[in-house]
Design a protein that fits this description.
15% of the residues lie in helices and 54% in strands. The protein is elongated and about 55 Å long. The protein has an eight-stranded antiparallel beta barrel. A two-stranded antiparallel sheet has the order 10-11. The chain has a single domain, classed as Porin (Beta Barrel).
Length: 213
C-alpha cells in the first residue's frame, strides 16, 4: 500500500512540473511569436487573424480504442480508454501537446494491465487549409505500466518512454475544436526484481474535443 501511495505522489508531482513547464514554454516563446506577421484568418470567423490562434491554451478529452501489444496483451484485452490533453499553440508550425492517461484493462483469466502516462510532445502542423489542420506528434514522457494476475504482480516503477503518431484538428469556433489522434506509446522496458523485464507498447485511436481559452 505504501508503495502505491508513493507511486501516485510521484505522478502528481510530475503533473505539476509539466504544467509549470508548459507556462514557462509560453513565456519563452512569446517574444518570438510577436514578431510573426499576421494574415487573413478562417473565413467563417469574421475579423479573425492567423495570429489570433497563437498563444492559445486548450484543454481536451479524448475517447477511443486502445490496442495492447507485447507483455501488456497477456494481462489485458483491448478496449475503450480516455486521455486528457493540454495544448499550447506556440507558433504557426508547432504546438506543445501534453497527454495524461490512466486506464485499466483486464481479461477473463484474472489478469489486469494498468497504463499511466504523462507525455509532453511536439505537435508539428503540416499546413492549415481553411479550419482543417493535419499534424504529427513526437514525444518523450513518463510511464508507469503495471500488470498483475492471480499469481503475479509486477513492480511499480516509473520509466521514460517514446510516443509518436498523427492526427487532425477541425476548428469550429474561437473556443472549440474537434479532431482525431492516432498515437503509439512505447514505454521503455521495466526491470523487475527477480524476473524478466516487462516489455510492451500500446496504440490509441481517439476522438478528441478541445476547449480553448
Amino acid at each position: 500500500m505504501q508503495k502505491k501511495i508513493a507511486h501516485s505522489s510521484i505522478f502528481i508531482a510530475l503533473t505539476i512540473l509539466s504544467i509549470v513547464g508548459a507556462f514557462s514554454f509560453q513565456a519563452f516563446s512569446q517574444s518570438k511569436i510577436e514578431k510573426m506577421t499576421t494574415g487573413d484568418g478562417p473565413k467563417d470567423l469574421p475579423g479573425s487573424r492567423v495570429d489570433d490562434y497563437l498563444k492559445i491554451h486548450s484543454l481536451g478529452l479524448g475517447i477511443g480504442e486502445t490496442w495492447l501489444s507485447g507483455d501488456f496483451a497477456n494481462y489485458g484485452n483491448d478496449g475503450i480508454s480516455w486521455d486528457i490533453y493540454y495544448d499550447y499553440s506556440a507558433s504557426h508550425s508547432f504546438d506543445l501537446l501534453v497527454d495524461f492517461h490512466w486506464n485499466k484493462f483486464s481479461n477473463d483469466s484474472g489478469g489486469k494491465e494498468t497504463q499511466i502516462g504523462l507525455v509532453p510532445s511536439a505537435k508539428i502542423k503540416f499546413y492549415q487549409f481553411d479550419n482543417f489542420t493535419p499534424f504529427v506528434i513526437l514525444g518523450l514522457g513518463f510511464y508507469a505500466p503495471e500488470v498483475s494476475s492471480p499469481t503475479y504482480d509486477s513492480d511499480a516503477k516509473i520509466v521514460l518512454g517514446a510516443s509518436y503518431g498523427l492526427g487532425m484538428d477541425l476548428r469550429l469556433s474561437r473556443h472549440f475544436k474537434i479532431g482525431a489522434i492516432y498515437q503509439i506509446h512505447n514505454p521503455f522496458d521495466v526491470s523487475q526484481d527477480g524476473g524478466p523485464d516487462l516489455e510492451g507498447s500500446y496504440s490509441k485511436l481517439l476522438l478528441v474535443g478541445f476547449y480553448s481559452f
